[in-house]
Write a structure and sequence with these properties.
alpha+beta, Rossmann fold, Beta-Lactamase, 5-stranded antiparallel beta sheet, 10 helices, P-loop_NTPase
């Protein structure tokens, strides 16, 4: 959810429909609510609702449609336009009304939730858009916090904000909006991220959203850690096949000490590979795998299961492809177990 023009539909088109940022200029405004279902790893199905942000639609969402839009919500993604002149006035008023509706329709959301992790405000990013997501996959509570729905707040179009003030703007925005939310009586969790469709910050934020929705994520991570150790790899990253969002990653700490790691490397890989896949589809040459070899390391990106791609980075390139091939049956079995649950 979010006010009209905040960037919700562009965001959805880039993440879930593989459009390039430059192509989103042709998208029209969302009328009322556009819903879509997306299938993910382990039988997880997302019901993603893109809610129109014009005042008339927002008023309708909050009154006549309140029980339809806000009931049984797993997560609310609310987008703010970083360049809006009404960012902390009328834009925030609508957000607070949405929190109130969310709390009214999901009474457990009034229970206190643990504070967001320190990393939640680390990546600068712009735009203001919001979507309601319901999860139908099954680990009992769909991956939601015990206190009710989780609210992700994206300050969007951060590319329009000078680089040297992006962090401070996000921090001030987070402090002010959180203060107003608490004063209005909302006690649920709020997680803030800065985003832009023109860089990897959009993938960073949405990877966190999607990983929050994933069932049995801790179990999956433990299996990736075992794979890392058995294959003597430096790093392993698991991507969702369609969106190329990062599901999970594990890193060899000893190798990390000897190397300067780019903190945004995963999201940059997502952005580049997705653009490359789109280029392949335009010339009708389906993307299969990618191998990079340098004097210092080798990296192989290949399909792991029908729902995932895996990136393995190692100093010894010879065995990477063989290890991925041997690991496929094991991780496919993990997916089938998740579906059963």
């Amino acid at each position: 959810m979010g006010k009209s023009g905040s960037g919700k539909t562009s965001m959805r088109a880039i993440i879930f429909k593989s459009q390039l940022a430059a192509d989103t200029r042709r998208l029209g405004a969302t009328i009322d609510v556009e819903s879509s279902q997306i299938k993910f790893l382990g039988g997880l199905r997302l019901d993603l609702w893109d809610c129109g942000g014009q005042d008339s639609f927002m008023d309708s969402h909050l009154t006549a449609q309140s029980s339809t839009v806000f009931r049984a919500v797993h997560s609310l993604i609310y987008i703010f336009d970083a360049e809006s002149t009404e960012l902390l006035t009328s834009d925030t008023v609508y957000f607070l009304k949405c929190l109130r509706a969310l709390q009214d329709q999901n009474p457990t959301s009034s229970a206190p939730q643990p504070p967001p992790s320190p990393a939640s405000a680390s990546a600068p990013s712009p735009t203001s858009t919001s979507a309601a997501v319901t999860s139908s996959a099954g680990n009992g509570n769909g991956g939601a916090d015990d206190g009710g729905p989780t609210v992700f707040v994206l300050l969007h179009k951060m590319d329009l904000v000078p680089v040297d003030v992006q962090q401070s703007k996000l921090a001030e925005f987070e402090a002010e909006v959180t203060r107003k939310a608490r004063e209005s009586g909302y006690k649920g969790g709020l997680r803030f991220y800065g985003t832009s469709i023109w860089n990897e910050t959009l993938y960073k934020a949405w990877s966190i959203v999607i990983s929050h929705l994933m069932p049995s994520l801790s179990s999956l991570r433990s299996h990736l850690t075992s794979f890392l150790s058995l294959s003597s790899a430096s790093e392993i990253v698991l991507f969702e096949r369609t969106t190329f969002l990062v599901i999970s990653s594990v890193t060899n700490e000893d190798d990390a000490k000897d190397t300067e790691w780019d903190e945004r490397r995963f999201e940059r890989i997502s952005t580049m590979v997705k653009a490359f896949k789109l280029g392949c589809s335009k010339i009708r040459s389906p993307f299969s795998s990618l191998t990079i070899t340098t004097p210092h390391y080798a990296a192989v990106l290949d399909a792991l299961t029908p729902e995932t791609y895996i990136l393995v980075v190692a100093r010894e390139p010879a065995s990477i492809e063989l290890n991925i091939r041997l690991a496929r049956p094991h991780f496919a079995k993990l997916e089938s177990i998740a579906v059963g649950r």
